[in-house]
Amino acid sequence: MSKMNALEKKSAIAIAFMIALRMYGLFLILPVFSVYAVDIDGATPLLVGLAIGVYGLTQALLQIPMGFLSDVWGRKKVIALGLCLFALGSVVAALADDIFWIIVGRLIQGMGAIAATGLALVADVSRPEQRGKMMAIVGSSIGLSFMLAFISGPILAAQFGLSGLFWFTASLAVAALLVLIFVVEEPEKLAARDYSFKELLHCIKLKPLMMMDFGVFALHASMTALFLVLPLVLVQNFNFELAHHWRLYLPVLVLSIGIMVPLIIAQEKLKNHMQMMSAAFLLLSGSLMLLNLVHANFWLLAVYLVAYFGLFNYLEASMPSVISKIAAEKYRGAAMGVFATSEFIGAFVGGALGGYLLSLNRDYVLSAAAGLLLVAALFGFKLFGLKRVSN
After folding, report:
1. Superfamily of segment(s) 1-194
2. How many Cβ atoms are within 10 Å of 245's Cβ, its own excluded?
3. Whole-number pLDDT of residue 103
């Protein structure tokens, strides 16, 4: 096996750092927003859910168009545009004095839809045999930013408030822009367009990819819905101060690695990707249902959170990797584009529908999320049963 060359190593680290800065800022508000939103003018459960999830709507609508635009303008120009929009949306949200302007700010944040373009840039600067390693580095940086945001978000919010979090997010976008301008390199000759609309249609109809797209939709809908409810449960049921929530999230996320890593190893060893992921969706659904039943027992809640995040992180890490193996080279860009779009639609639906259900009854939110994950599991079992589907 060949090793990454100097350009590939530099590009992998720079792109991963740039994307991690942006994702860290995006994740920061998740563990705190539903608690702080109580004091925002005009806030209702529905509007709070919409504010959390609405960025996913513009992300989903613009992900593929921004990818196409990057073929014409260049990857770095489109990523720079996306980071500027993300920073602008953060500033709008930071200056907001009611829930409606926060929604506008989050909507603008989502317009910086550069996930697919970032993956295309990774493909541009890597050889085919090194592309998997570079994707893994970028994926790991996103996972690290997720963990860091959930640990530091409550601490930063306690110090600087919700507005301060949005200002911090804007500064992270600027830092990412500086990394892009001064560190990230782009090949002079752009690669041919990664996908066409015909190829998009092909990916939508391909059964393994169809399961992935619905799976990531359900996964991110459940995660957004969970963090509408979880901070409220911790504060209201256990008198657990928001600034101290990191004391729960840190051990939960660390312990969840003990579930994620063995599952990834087993999946690669058994080569039974679809079966294992379908089972993981089923267990994930069960963990949310159990979470819904333990509002009075802190330690059981912590145990079920470990199970949820272990399974969530396993699926989050596995699905892009499996897509890269299943999708032929010709369709890989299209597959990633549809996958990213499905992910952000899920975040929007989880926030908007979760907010509506929260206005009716808090218990409905996790029940609906668990039901969606159950559908994803049954969808996978129906398509593949116990068959082995691998590269």
Report:
1. MFS general substrate transporter like domains (1.20.1250.20)
2. 24
3. 95
